[in-house]
Amino acid sequence: MSDYLIQALFAGLEPMRLFFLVVGTVMGIIVGGIPGLTALMLITLTLPLTFYMGDANALSLLIGMYVGGISGGAVTAVVLGIPGTPSSILTTFDGHALAKSGKVEKALAWAVFSSFVGSIISWLFLATVSVPLARLALKFGPFDLFGLCLLALMTIVAVSRGDFLMGLISGFFGVLIAMVGTDPIGGDYRLTFGILDLATGFDVLPVLVGLFAGGSVLSWAFGQEERATKDAEPFSTLSIPIPELIRHTWSLIRSSIIGVAVGILPGIGGNIGSIIAYSAAQAQSREPETFGKGNLDGIIASEAGNNATVGGALIPLIALGIPGSVIDAVLIGALTIHHIQPGPYLFRNNPEIVYVMISAMLLASIVMLGVMWYGSQLVIYLTRVRSSILFPFIAVFSVLGSFALANRWFDVGIMAAFSVLGLIMTMGRVPVAPFVIGVVLGPIVEKYYRVGLMATGGSHLPMLTSPVSALCLLAILALLFWPIYVRHRDKP
Amino acid sequence: MKTTARILGVIALLASFIGTALGADYPQKPIRVIVPLAAGGGSDIFARMLQPGLQQDLGVPVVIVNVPGAGTAIGSRQVLTAGSDGYTVLLNHVALHSLYALGKTDFSYKDFAVVAGTTAVPNMIAVRADSPYKSLADLFGAAKEKPDSIVAGVNIGAPNHLSIALAAARGGGAKFRYVQTGGATQTVTALLGGQAAVGVLTTADAAPFRDTNELRFIAVLDDDRNADYPDVPTAKEQGVDVRMVLDYYWYMPKGTPQERIDRFADALEKLMNDEATRKSLKELLIDPTFTRGKDAEAALAAGLSATQDAAKAAGLGKK
């Protein structure tokens, strides 16, 4: 066992592996930080190049990109309020709010550190209990996943505090937009108005890039920009005071564990780890009204939550050969190309490659922390770049990323349309976040609800008898009615 | 005499133009191969495995372009409407049939110029290793005894659904409870987690679970047993005549000059007979077969008609 742990720690330390790992992590951070480009694109583009590399080097490179890509998104989310990757949507709220109030360094420090803690905690689970956890996760039925995602959808309430009705309407339209495309069951086209290109629906990426990045570009073009800027004062290096760290320890751990759990579960996806962690953070907070206005727990939840899904999603891959996310599916492809058969016997047949993967996850997290912590000087420089230089770049990458998604101009059109919508929403003070959460979660909630009903022959009863879904429904009720109860109790 | 020479000269000149137009010196620029599925998936990896060999033989870059969406409909249609100059190629499998059989596209393989068929990957019916069903008779018997109780995890309307629906219809009309599950990954997850009692996997998809004590394969839906799964009996052996084999076909837009189609098919044929290629395909448990011309057309016709039967059996046929 101790030999196993030593391997899991150090198998990636061979010089060439380490070289590819650092290259991968740095590329991941950069691509992850650019709105419109995602870790998935980077990894799928790199995959053919790894045909000619050794298996351990290839996996070190790809896992570095995975960890770096998820982490890099936080930077643009904090500094520009534009999520670099879809999983950093929620970092824009508190991270960017804090940055706008002049505390860019503090927001960045926490975003980077939380990413690191999320990665490390998920690595601990990956390295120690992956097999039993993967088996346990298989037991979750469609109603359980439905309950969890519905609970996550409650985040709409959390992120639209202040103007609840507007938030609800915004979220509703998000869900509606997500309905366009192909019915998840049976594959009939719906709301496509006979346009075959719409059959894939509105992918999260062009919608998100349009609303956030495109919307910001248009806001700037129309002279409505709101940016976190920093005067020419000298930068202080990132730091986190110990008392602050102690105060937020529980928040870090809770968010990471939620991220791991979401990562392991089949068919939910990484974006949702940060959403659920965020809503848990707010539900537990003593000052929930400060969320979205620069609350540190908000940043922690989002960034620890999304990074922890990386290790979480690797768990079923390593234990059973089942990919926990789209990126993991590509990693499985990488294994097969290198003549390694993923599956329940991966560890028995190719222990060395499992060690390399687990070790790469750990080393990539450490490299990511180092690069982002000390590279932050460079990042903060972004706040000084003139808008007339910065925004054209963002526009170019928004077009590139949307096109690269499926190699078609149609997605660029979608991105452009949502840029206009983003501008209108900002001008009309309609919160964008609930809309995005609706787009991300709507389809999953719908799918698992209907799949659950198919499995039970139309009965809702098992939703209440399965402990996980029952617990989720109970939590939803509590979230809905607790504030009303409190108001009535306080009023005589 | 002079005039004749002039006329001959003009004819020669014209001929060289026609020759160019017909593909005498095809290919001269990069060829795009549209993979209508996501990058990193099985089809994509297959295309990218063949890409270097094709490039070498054809002498021009071969670019793999992923155009995923709507169960391959979007990428396929891009090729349908592309220029018929031999520089746009589609790689697709049985999904092209099932989309048409279900009325989701208004074009079938007949609307393309068929280049060639490569590889064959049969579907298998899978249960969990500790399942009481050891044969199709067990499974269909239980399903007939208690209709609509055994959960079959499938992707509604997709080849895996059609496979088991056709087998059930031809095996005496057993009724399963079909639950939307998805593709190979989701099927494995649902089987191992107990959300589904039966599912369908291709021999390649099932590779991670071959010789493990996790899953049991009770029938292979092909005419002969599969060399990689010698112990799995065919459905035919068990009295159920079903063949559901996922094979990849290469298409060009209708109207592409035959010389260019042949040139690309030659390159594919050479590649599929290449030892190194055969070896790496076999490692993925993909049978490196090759068909072209009349044989390919006949196999496609049989595939489409089986898919239409299956759609009818599943109650999903074109209305």
Question: How would you portray this structure in words?
Answer:
The complex is a heterodimer of chains A (492) and B (319). Chain A is mainly alpha-helical. Chain A has one domain (2-137, 226-391, 446-490). Chain A has 22 helices and two strands. A two-stranded antiparallel sheet of chain A has the order 1-2. Chain A is globular, with a radius of gyration of 22 Å. Chain B is of the alpha/beta class and 319 residues long. Chain B folds into two domains: 22-120 and 245-313, D-Maltodextrin-Binding Protein, domain 2; 122-238, D-Maltodextrin-Binding Protein, domain 2, CATH 3.40.190.10. In chain B, strands 1, 2, 3, 4, 5, 6, 7, 8, 9 and 10 form a ten-stranded mixed beta sheet that branches. The radius of gyration of chain B is 22 Å and the shape is elongated. The chains are: A mainly alpha (492), B alpha/beta (319). The interface between A and B is large, with 51 and 50 residues. Chain A: The chain crosses the membrane at residues 18-43, 63-86, 107-134, 140-159, 164-182, 202-222, 257-281, 313-332, 353-375, 387-406, 418-444, 464-486.
